Amino acid sequence: MDRTRAPGRRTLLAGGLAAAAAALSGCAAPGASAGRASTPPSPGARPTTPSAAFARLMDGNKRWVSGDLQHPDRDPTRRELVAQEQNPFGVVLSCIDSRVPPELLFDTGLGDLYVMRTGGQAVGPVVTGSVEYGPVTGGTPLIFVLGHQRCGAVKAAYTSLREDKPLPGNLQAIVRALRPAYERALKEGGADPVETMARAQVRLTASDLRGNADLAPLVRKGALAVVGGYYSLDTGAVEILTDVPPGA
């Protein structure tokens, strides 16, 4: 995870990123502008602890599975409330797969989640920095790494590595990023090595984020939790693969 991290990035985050965030009018962190009122709470109020944020996501997923959707925070009033600043309660790192839209499968809306989507949850310095943004600058209490069933990116990377045939162009960067998961899958075995690799990618990515130099202190003091889950295309349900936040 982020093994090619650029020198000095931790210093930037520790000293300058929070200040720089205040100047980003479209990405303002809570309280970034003096005299500006905080975004009024959406129905149910914004979760402020890892366990509450986790519960909000999982309750939303249950509604997605059952079809009893609330479609919260998806109207002009909500758009107006979050137009000037945002205060999301969760960060989701998921795949680009068109069948796995986090805002829908967790039944959330505008201003609720920071969402990063890459092929097979492949990570690098830019993606890692994007994941760090909410927790480091605004106190977002939850990071959720979401893999999924029948992941095309994982399958392509698995085949490329197994057959030693590089993928064209920048697709090979995804293969390189997923190599640790491939190696883990070879050790673990299983009836379906691609599914084993996809689950390994979730666990490895969540573990690396949990131990990240800038996120680990937040995790240790209980202000942040990093959870890994696996989405079933067949049922719509999210299965938890890593430890849940204390109290959840």
UniProtKB/TrEMBL annotation:
Zn(2+) binds at residues 95, 97, 148, 151. Its cofactor is Zn(2+). The keyword Cell cycle does not apply. PROSITE patterns: PROKAR_LIPOPROTEIN, TAT. The keyword Metal-binding applies. Keywords: Metal-binding, Signal, Zinc. InterPro entries: Carbonic_anhydrase, Carbonic_anhydrase_sf, TAT_signal. Residues 1-28 form the signal peptide. Belongs to the beta-class carbonic anhydrase family. Catalyzes the reversible hydration of carbon dioxide to form bicarbonate. This is Carbonic anhydrase. It comes from Streptomyces cinnamoneus (Streptoverticillium cinnamoneum).
